[in-house]
Amino acid sequence: MSDSSDPRPAVAVTLAPLGPDPRTGLQIAAALAVRGVQVSAGQAGTRARDLDRSGRRDLLIAARRLELDVVGIDAWFKPEDLLDPARVDDAVTALLATIELASDLGAIPVSTRFPAEGGEEA
Questions:
Q1: Is 73 buried (19+), middle (13-18) or exposed (0-12) by CB count in 10 A?
Q2: pLDDT in tens, 58-73
Q3: Max alpha carbon distance in the chain (Å)?
Q4: What pLDDT shows up at residue 116?
C-alpha cells in the first residue's frame, strides 16, 4: 500500500500497547500517521487461535481501510518453554500457528526468540 510518495514515516507500531482491542489499536496507529502495524501473537483478537480465515481477512481489511499495512507479528514466547518437556508441544504448536497466520496476512515476518543455551535441542 505504501509507496515512495507517501509522506508518512516508514515505521510501524506494535498494536498490543495501544489498547486491549486491536481495532482501537489500528485507529490509534492511523492517528499517529505511521505506515504499518505489528500485531502480537499473544494479544486477544490477533492470536492465531482467535482468527479464522474470515477474521484474518477482516483484520487486513480494517488495516487497509485506515491505510495501514500489517508488517509483522511479535511472537514473544518464553524461550525456555521450547526446552521444557511439559510445555514444548504447546509452544511449538503456538509458534507454528503464528507462522501460518503470518502467511495468511501476506507472508509477513515473525519476530520470536529461541533459547540461548540448549537451543539446538529446540
A1: buried
A2: 999 999 999 999 999 9
A3: 51
A4: 82
Sheet of strand 110-111: strand arrangement: 12-14, 36-40, 69-74, 110-111
Q: Are 122 and 114 in contact (CB under 8 A)?
A: yes
Local structure of residue 74 (DSSP, 8 states): E
Alpha carbon 117 to its chain centroid, in Å, reads 26
**Is pTM beyond 0.90 here?**
no
Q: How far is CA 98 from CA 21, 53, 71, 119, in A?
A: 19, 13, 14, 20
Q: 88-97 long-range contacts, Cβ below 8 Å, gap at least 24?
A: 88/122, 94/41, 94/48, 97/48, 97/49
CB-based contact 23:51 (threshold 8 Å)? no
Closest by Cα among 49, 50, 107 to 73: 107
**Are 71 and 36 spatial neighbours (Cβ–Cβ below 8 Å)?**
yes
72: amino acid identity, one letter: G
CB–CB of 24/62 below 8 Å?
Answer: no
